[in-house]
């Protein structure tokens, strides 16, 4: 999931100057209730797909904050959508954090995955079939510090989201026989 040392402790990600600038901009917007998710998603998805993840595949300035494209079907509408989300790999499993940049509600993709857990993700130019489930309390307790080590901004998002506990969703591969 994250870079670990010999003792298995997650290594802290050190942001570049660009990373600090991105985080400051995000904190400024989020603390004022400006959420750019919907406005920027279409462009992000288009660029990611066009360039196979070479553009839009990680958060600028945060080398361990990698981004995948998550397909999901609307829980009520049935409409298929795609959302770029940060992810963390642990073997074949992938964890995604439903932070919605610290907003008081969970992102739509979270609700959609609960209703329709079988889906696809794209990492770089590779597409995978997965099934989603919410991390249990103990799973979340293990995953949260690992996610923070890759992108410490989640701590700020959790403070903004209070009292909402930001959920973590695990995406497991669907094995075809």
How would you explain this protein's 3D organization?
- The chain has 177 residues and is α+β, with helices and mostly antiparallel strands.
- Helix content is 34%, strand content 25%.
- It has helices spanning 17-31, 37-50, 108-115, 137-150, 153-161, and strands spanning 66-73, 80-90, 93-97, 118-123, 126-134, 168-173.
- A hairpin with a 2-residue loop joins strand 2 (80-90) and strand 3 (93-97).
- Mean pLDDT is 83; it is low at 1-12.
Task: Summarize the model shown.
Helices cover 34% and strands 25% of the residues. By secondary structure, it is α+β, with helices and mostly antiparallel strands.
Task: Describe this protein with a few key phrases.
177 residues; 34% helix; alpha+beta; 5 helices
Number of strands: 6
Which parts are unreliable, with pLDDT below 50 for 5 consecutive residues or more?
A: 1-12
DSSP helical segment count:
5
Q: What fraction of the residues are assigned to beta strands by DSSP?
A: 25-35%
Largest sheet: 6 strands, antiparallel, barrel
* Radius of gyration (Å): 16 Å
